[in-house]
């Protein structure tokens, strides 16, 4: 699961949507391999997180130390080495398309179990 934290009016969020998520190849890849939930960094909706916590979006953002938007939080699935529901990756701010989709590939392939993203991206980017 991926949580995409956004903030209304954020230039970096807008750029992420226009340059990355509007690309059919990128959007298709993400839809194929990930369940994505969009949350508002300053929002008031009550949401339930993988650990069972149910609070307002803004409070959960603070608890997760979401400082900038967009931020993508990646959580382990039920069959991963990491504790199910544990955060296994985080991508913050606007990231150009190649690195953006590369990070999603890094998570899909569970490469974080073996190495860091920068090292992986140098070899597989």
List keywords for this structure.
125 residues, alpha+beta, Glutaredoxin, 4-stranded mixed sheet, two-stranded antiparallel sheet, 5 helices, 6 strands, globular
Describe the structure.
- The structure is a single chain.
- The chain has 125 residues and is of the alpha+beta class.
- The protein has one domain: 3-Layer(aba) Sandwich (Glutaredoxin).
- 38% of the residues lie in helices and 22% in strands.
- The chain contains five helices and six strands; from the N terminus they run βααβββαββαα.
- α2 (24-33) runs parallel beside α4 (97-108) and α4 crosses α5 (117-124).
- 21% of the residues are buried.
Describe the secondary-structure layout.
Blueprint (H helix, E strand, L loop, with lengths): L1 E5 L4 H11 L2 H10 L2 E5 L5 E3 L5 E3 H7 L7 E5 L11 E6 L4 H12 L8 H8 L1
Parallel strand pairs: 1-2
Antiparallel strand pairs: 1-5, 3-4, 5-6
Helix pairs in contact: 2-4, 4-5
Give me the CATH architecture, please.
3-Layer(aba) Sandwich
Number of helices in the DSSP assignment: 5
Total number of β-strand segments? 6
Helix amount, in percent?
Answer: 25-40%
Strand order of the largest sheet: 2-1-5-6
Largest sheet: 4 strands, mixed
Query: What share of residues are in beta strands?
Result: 15-25%
Give the count of structural domains. 1
At CATH level 3, the topology is Glutaredoxin
Backbone structural class: alpha+beta
CATH top level class name: Alpha Beta
Quick summary:
Helix content is 38%, strand content 22%. The protein contains five helices and six strands. The chain starts with a strand and ends with a helix.
